[in-house]
Write a structure and sequence with these properties.
The chain has 227 residues and is an alpha/beta fold. 50% of the residues lie in helices and 11% in strands.
């Protein structure tokens, strides 16, 4: 293996970036490209309501990843799974999930299991320091730049068959989408589609449905980013 050849292999990678920046899709793409099984765990999957529950959840999800190895275990919202302790009454529950997660992460490395751990967060400063130290690589996933947003817009808007939308419109739409993630852009399109559907109903039904450039301009990007 690589380790036997002296090559340093990261024990885990933490993907950092704002909500909607595509961290989950990146993890899935890595799994697909490497022909690896993909196992996803969220805070809701791992956290427990009482002592013993969270530890069992963590053991189960790592066991699932081992059972289908070689695999990627993707832990979403790591800042909620293993937050910094703050002296609250929930500290015992937090300590339990942190301790069990550390045990499982160290076990993956020690046993040379074919399980690679990826995690995602938009608040890395809120993650417990001991958990954070196990992620030896940290990658920042930024919001899409102008070129990437325009490329996304073209794909989504072509699929939506928007009428009276031309190539010269995309620079303006790219500027309007500044600061938006792919999720925000999808929400923006959905708002415009709802406006077009409402107009169609008022005009007599689905046969009157048509979405245009004006529907996009009338939908508020700020509303899409909070939807």
């Amino acid at each position: 293996g690589w380790g036997a050849r002296g090559v340093s292999i990261p024990t885990g990678i933490l993907l950092e970036g704002p909500a909607g920046s595509g961290k989950t899709q990146i993890a899935r793409t890595i799994a697909n490209e490497g022909s690896l099984s993909f196992v996803k765990a969220t805070a809701a999957d791992l956290k427990g309501l009482y002592l013993g529950h969270a530890a069992a959840n963590v053991r189960d999800i790592f066991a699932k990843a081992r059972a289908v190895s070689p695999s990627i275990l993707f832990i979403d919202e790591l800042d909620l799974v293993a937050p910094c302790r703050n002296g609250s009454s929930n500290d015992a529950l937090v300590q339990e999930i942190i301790s069990q997660t550390l045990q499982e992460l160290d076990g993956v490395v020690a046993q040379h299991r074919q399980v690679f751990v990826l995690a995602a967060t938009n608040l890395p400063e809120n993650i417990d320091a001991s958990i954070l130290s196990r992620f030896t690589e940290r990658l920042v996933i930024p919001l899409p730049d102008m070129e990437s947003r325009v490329r996304m817009l073209k794909v989504l808007f072509n699929q939506a068959k928007i009428e009276r939308l031309f190539e010269c419109d995309y620079p303006l739409l790219g500027k309007l989408s500044l600061g938006m993630s792919l999720r925000d852009i999808r929400n923006w399109l959905a708002l415009a589609q709802r406006q077009a559907a409402t107009r169609a109903v008022a005009m007599g039904g689905s046969a009157a449905y048509s979405m245009t450039r004006d529907d996009l301009l009338n939908a508020t990007p700020d509303a899409a980013m909070t939807a």
